[in-house]
Amino acid sequence: MNRILFFILVLSPIFLFGKNLELNQSSNIIDQKSKCQNITDNTTVKFKVKGLRCSNDIGIIKKTLNELNGVIDYKNENVKHATSFIVIYNKKEVSIEEIYSTIESLRSCCSKDNFIVIKE
Fold it and tell me: For 53-99, how does the pLDDT look when each residue is reduced to its tens digit (9 = 90+)?
């Protein structure tokens, strides 16, 4: 009786779900390999943005970069009279011109002026 109960409670889930676990693990390995191959498509660019009037303007740019397909990561730092951005993006998904034009189409929350991208 104990062996039957042991089989039902312990071993049957392994037999029933074991193959699905193996498939999930192999598909995760494939996903990881494809992500590693796509790293070569990643590019880093640094540029400055002028026309920011307050800290909310930086938030506007960050939100837009988050929503832009192909942008992987970004960092900003304040420098004199401008804010500098370092953006890592996948060049197969988005072009640098698209990133620049998207930022330049935004407006400051404190004025009606558009931001200006200064390429470095």
Answer: 888 899 999 999 999 999 999 999 887 677 899 999 999 999 999 99
Kindly indicate the confidence band of residue 24, based on its pLDDT and cuts at 50, 70 and 90: very low
Tell me how many domains the chain contains.
Answer: 1
What residue numbers bound the domain in which 62 lies?
A: 41-119
**Cα–Cα distance between 103 and 115 in angstroms, integer?**
7
For residue 69, give the amino acid letter: N
- 92 three-class SS: coil
Question: What does the longest C-alpha to C-alpha distance in the chain come to?
Answer: 80
Strands (E), the chain: 42-50, 71-79, 82-90, 116-119
Q: Is residue 97 part of a domain?
A: yes
Where does residue 106 rank: exposed (0-12), middle (13-18), buried (19+ CB within 10 A)?
Answer: middle
This prediction has a pTM of: 0.65
- Tell me if 36 is assigned to some domain: no
